[in-house]
Structure formats: C-alpha cells, structure tokens
Amino acid sequence: MPDLACKLLVIGAGPGGYACAIRAGQLGVDTIIVEAARDGGTCLNIGCIPSKALVHAGDEFARLRMYAATGAMGLSAGAPSVDFTKTNAWIGGVVDRLSRGVTGLLKKAGVRSLRGEARFRDGKTVVVRGSDGEQRIRAENVVIATGSEPVPLPSVPFGGSVISSTEALSLTVVPQRMAVIGGGYIGLEIGTAYAKLGSTVTVVEAAERILPQWDAALTEPVVRRLSALGVSVLTSTKAMDWSGSHLTVASAEGQASEIAADKVLVAVGRRPRTDSAGLADLRLSMSGPFIKIDDRCRTSMRGVYAVGDVTGEPMLAHRAIAQGEMVAGIIAGQPHAWDKVAIPAICFTDPEIVSVGLLPDEAKRQRIDVKVAEFPFKANGRALTTERDDGFVRVVARADNGALLGAQAVGEGVSELSAAFTLALEMGARLDDIAATIHAHPTRSEAFQEACLRALGLPLHI
Ligand code: FAD
Ligand code: NAD
After folding, report:
1. Which of 56, 246, 441, 461 is catalytic?
2. pTM listed for this prediction
3. Is the N or C terminus of the chain more exposed, i.e. has fewer CB atoms within 10 Å?
C-alpha cells in the first residue's frame, strides 16, 4: 500500500483520541485516526456506557422487586424476573448506537479512519497492521491516546472465573455468587448492579473504607445502602488466593476466611497502556507509569502529544475529552493551555456520589481556612417526593471571602449536580452568588443553594 501522510495522526479512538480527531477535522486539520478495536474506546464499548446501562437495569429491577414486596405508594407489581439475554441485547444496542455515532462524527469531520494496531517506527512515522496488511503513515504531529487496561492481581490472576470489568460487562447469566476485589469505582458500580439483579455479592476492600479517596461522611450513605441490599463489605481485607470455587481473604490482623463464589471480579485499579504502539522505543519521559505531559499535553518528543488515561489521574472520560479537544486546537494553531479549575468525579453507586474541587480535609491539609456547610436531602421537597431522602449537598468555601473551593453531594441522581458544581468553580463563584441565584423548586439542586445559604449563616429551609 502506498504511504499515507497527514498533519495529525491520532492513535486510539477512545474519548481522548476521537474528541481530538473530530475537533481537528472540524478545524480543517488533515487528520487520520487509528483504532485497533472499536470506535469509542474503553468508555463506550467496555466501560462508562455498558456499566451505566447495567447499573440502570439493576436499579429498575430493584425498584420492581421493592414494589412487588412492599406495595409502597399503593403501587404493586407481579413477581418480577430478569431475562438477562434481553438485558444484554439492550446494553449492546446502546453501545452500538454510540460507537456508530462516533464513527459517523469522525467521517463528518473529514477524518480518515484506519482499523488496525499502530506501531511507532520513529516519532513521525507509524505503521498500522490491519486486516489488509501494513500501512505506513508519515505525520507532522502524533497524539497518543492508547488509554488504560485493568491492573491484574498476582495472587488472583485473571482467567476462568476470575474476571475484569470487561468480562463482567459481558456475562451471559447473572452469577449466583460474586466476589468483588476492590471497593472502588468499578467494584461498587458493577457489584451493586449485580446485587440488584439477584447475585449474592461480597466486596473485599484492602483499605479501611470503601471509596477511600473520599471522606467517610460522603461514603456513609452508600455503605448503609449496600448493607440494605444485602451486599457484604469486608474492609481492611486482602484477597490471597482463588481455589476455583472459594476466594481466600485475610483481614489486617491476619485472620483468613473463605468466600464461595461463581465469579470473582478483580477491580483494583487500571494502568496506562504504555506497552502498546512500540511506545517504549520512543523513550518518552515518564511520570511514574504514565507518559509525562506539560500543560499543552506535549510529551518530551517534539510533535508528539499524549491525552487521556495514558497521561495520568484522574482516569476519567471527560478529562480525556477535554485534553483531546485542547490538543486539536493547539495543532490548528490556537493558543490553548490546560487551565481547568476542577475535574468532576462521580461514582454511580446507590446513592450516587459527586465531588468537585476540594474536600474539607484537602482544604485543611493545604492550610486554607474554610467554611463548610451541608444541606440534607431530608429537608428537600423533591427528595421526599421521590422517596429517596438519604444524602446531602456540601459546600467548601474560603472563610475570608466565601469563594467556592469545592462541592460534594451524595444522594439519588446527584450526578446531574456535577454541572452546577463545576460551572460554579470555573466561574469563580462565591457563596453569595450561588445563594442569590434562583434554583427551581422542587429540585434536588435547591440543596446546593441551601448549603450556600447555610454556610453564610442564612439558612431558610432548615
Ligand atoms: P480508552 O478509552 O482506553 O481508548 C483507548 C483506545 O486506544 C482503545 O480503543 C484501544 O483499542 C486503542 N488502542 C490502544 N493501543 C492502540 C494501538 N497501538 N493502535 C491502535 N489503537 C490502539 N470514566 C468516566 O469518566 N465515567 C465513567 O462512568 C466511567 N466508567 C467506567 C467504567 C468502567 C468499567 C471502566 C473500565 C472505565 C470507566 N471510566 C469512566 C473510565 C473511562 O473509560 C476512561 O477514562 C476513558 O475511556 C479514557 O479514554 P482514553 O481515550 O484515554 O482511552
Ligand atoms: P479504583 O482505584 O477506583 O478502586 C480500586 C480499589 O481497590 C481501591 O479502593 C483500593 O483500595 C482497592 N484495592 C487495591 N488493591 C487491593 C487488593 N489487593 N485487595 C483489595 N482491595 C484492593 O479502581 P477501579 O475501581 O478498578 O477503577 C479504575 C479507574 O477507572 C478508576 O480509578 C476511574 O479512573 C475509572 N472509573 C471511573 C468510573 C466513574 O467515573 N464513575 C467508573 C469506573 C471506573
């Protein structure tokens, strides 16, 4: 095949890569994107989207079971059941639609898409091995967006019944008993979904608490709900061995016990995919396991950029998208640099957790004098009308001038508050700006306004 040439070559069509390529194409940059698997990357195909679809299926089934059992609000239902083949077909349909959408957007932006495994020859030349053979591409600029993959656990290696999130999102039956190693994002989202669909779930977490990156107040409603759902959570506990039917775990005190399981989901983190694409030969500067980048996502090699999970924490799709879009602008000649105030983080547990900016403890560690106030959903009309009044909204603001430094919430549906929290931080809002903004009634977002009013010493509905 004759060599190809382009101004921009993007390796990997996950959120970081496809966002970069689409924006570059729109800006008139001659762009090629190479993807080894399916457009949309981890997020669309084996991550964010199928996991949230599974979470939704679990939520709906749990709701049906609850009404069948309690007749709450005067509603009743027959004995509900799951046809997991149909559930999977529905999840697959959502994934297909979005993946095809990305393919279409790339095409519409005039981006040339190649299917195959890309490998660097040098910083400007990449060879793509696809089903039709090898294709050499010369590029003025290359963006590495190769993403991340699950971290294996040496004591309980992947294989057979020991699975990663990828396999957990493509099971053909709901396992009767599932052991989940890691009480983080993946373990809790997928573990809770399967518990709601009927599995007996045990979560094994090495740290003292689940979701240890957040404070206990924020995670407590999730702990309570897990218990109500019958999920066993073993904290300060490590997985030691898998016999094929039993997982041996050991407590911090060294006490061993066994958990019977049909599937073991190992979710102890993800690592950047830096062994891909012949990256090692480029000898880029690294920051720990990640490719080192500057505030323009430039690597240590001229003309080579990196975006997304391969560049570090937080390994989140929206960070990858923002980086990809920024790099496209830079290559098109725009004067961009990374200046985001905050990257929202959401765990789609039950209830959901959202955190943007500083937690109270982080502010304290930075020796910033802060005001912290919470508004409980127990005092929020919308929460009461939807029968989920657990959780709260919390604001963290500078004590001297009320500038918002952080906002967190735990409660049903609070993921949607992430936009208001992040916008307030990006706009440099102060407590009185938010308190003086009309928040529609009855909505959960009123709890944000009320938390600010409380921090100002002007509570209205509490
Ligand atoms: P990826 O999405 O990993 O894409 C990289 C792409 O590069 C892949 O398609 C891969 O095939 C391709 N590739 C790699 N090497 C080569 C090569 N040599 N040649 C060609 N192609 C190559 N994040 C959120 O923000 N919200 C969520 O709710 C969320 N849920 C998640 C749930 C799960 C179960 C998982 C696993 C992850 C979740 N994430 C979530 C994280 C999110 O998926 C990642 O942060 C995001 O996908 C990173 O995007 P990326 O573009 O850096 O890489
Ligand atoms: P994680 O870092 O969220 O959680 C891993 C958990 O495993 C931690 O709580 C850790 O203490 C625990 N752990 C580590 N070693 C252990 C061991 N030997 N035994 C028991 N517990 C152990 O990682 P994850 O859940 O695998 O998710 C990976 C990444 O994917 C996340 O960090 C996030 O970036 C992304 N993700 C995001 C979302 C979202 O945004 N909603 C959802 C899923 C995944």
Report:
1. 441
2. 0.98
3. N
